[in-house]
Design brief:
With about 290 residues, the protein is mostly helical. It has eleven helices and no strands. It folds into two domains: about 45 residues; about 240 residues, MetI-like fold (Orthogonal Bundle), CATH 1.10.3720. The protein is globular and about 65 Å long.
Amino acid sequence: MSGNLARRRRKEKTLFMLFRICGALVVLALVVLLFYMFSGGISMISWDFLTQFPRDGMKEGGIYPAIVGTLYLMSIVLFVSIPIGVLSAVYLVEYQPSRTFSKIWRTALHNLAGVPSVVYGLLGVGLFVYFLNFGLSLLAAGLTLSLLVLPLVIAAAREAIQAVPDSLREASLALGATKWQTIRHHILPYSISGIMTGVILSLSRAAGDTAPILLTGAWFYMSSLPSSVFDKFMALPYHIFTMSTQMADLELGKQIAYGTAVVLLMIILGMNLFAIIIRKKYREKYRW
């Protein structure tokens, strides 16, 4: 008996050591990535770099149009994919009685989440650029990115809503609340922290994706900001791509690309920090 116990403890220690090594490798990869980006691009960061338009064939000036274009894209994704995704998750969890249909939906969502982004880009070209005649535009790119992140939003919202205990639903209904009142005043507030986490992660993916916007409206150089959703635009991920591959002066292009990557990373980290704050606030307010 003592021999079996000692063997199990050795096995447990070995597994715990493997878990610690895996965790350390993840942290190390993040540290290396941040060091690589900041060491190569922090020297480019300045007020002029953030607030000026590019000049002299992208060799001088800043990335202001790319920053604004990226924020415009995120706004379209936020206002299109989030309501549709959350309401779809509510329907699947609260209103869909068929387990078979729910399994089909879940399988479809998992498959759509694994589709390469360039395929969504081709879908955006066919659907929004040509069929709906939006042209190469901010709207076409934003809607394409919305389709890209929609399965992720639905999956995250669905898991968060399912995590709410059934006792809350039963208590609300027993007090005379309707199904929608229960969802609005109890289910969604208690699941909002999980929903927000999924939303911000989805926006972070959309902010850094290049293939869909490359095919649907991103532009190499613009001397002005887009005046409507039907105009072309600049965006940070596409700017990184062009600086890395299209510049005659490769060393200068590499520095600009690193600086742009640092700005994009800061925007994504800022969104993640905002999600953490919101999640903490609602977890403290709504407990079960």
